[in-house]
Fold Probable membrane transporter protein.
Amino acid sequence: MIELSTNLLYMVPALVFAGLLVGLLAGTFGVGGGGIIVPVLYECFRLMGVADEVRMPLCVGTSLAIIIPTSIRSARGHLARGAVDMTILRAWVAPLLAGVLIGSLSARFAPPWVFKLVFVSVSAVLAIKLLAGRESWRLGTSLPGRVGTTAYGMLVGVISSMMGTGGGGPSTMVLTLYGVPIHRAVATSAGVGTIVALPGAVGYMIAGWPDLDLLPPLSLGYVSVLAFALVVPTTLLAAPFGVRLAHALTRRQLEVAFAVFLLVVGARFLVSLILEV
């Protein structure tokens, strides 16, 4: 394992602050907060000297672990308001789990740039769709039949496990493209996070076990226990405020805010990809 460095002093306050943002975002947008915590973790692990070949999987796996309690807290808040579509959620359970398994297994073999490319591409597509704000941008008035719904659920699971998110972004896009109102889509996406995060984190723990010599202390495969312990308490503290904020915003305000958030976090990895070329 690599040794802890003095840069840990910078890592602690950065992760505590990131936890507050993650909790707020989880409640507001129905996302697990991976969009903000993955870039923060990436910089923290870079300062700690974590090897390039394991840094991005470590960020993604740790993010998924952090999302577990955050998504549960956020989903419970939306569920209490009756905003979660349980019919969609039940139909997606099995395909989401299958997609997460595929994405987690890929962590063992995919190069770092693949994770970054997925992160940037999905963030950009989501942001453009939301900023356009056109009701005509729909694929239908309801989700397709069993095969189509299953395929979408699996796709959300794969993308989420490779982005280190709870599935809020991809699932919100799919649901709104099929006529689900943004508030209901966001609330349902919070429920998706509870299904995606736990098996995703376990998958990354298993995938990273052969690389323990390259990982920082207190790591369970591609999951940093130290980062988890620093971020989770503040995410749980901030999540309820995010839920209240989401229901206070209008549909258009929520769409624009979500789009801006996605563009900011996607730009960070786009720059990184360009510099690597």
Residues 52-80 form the longest helix (29 residues). The chain has a mean pLDDT of 78. The radius of gyration is 17 Å. The chain has one domain: 8-276.
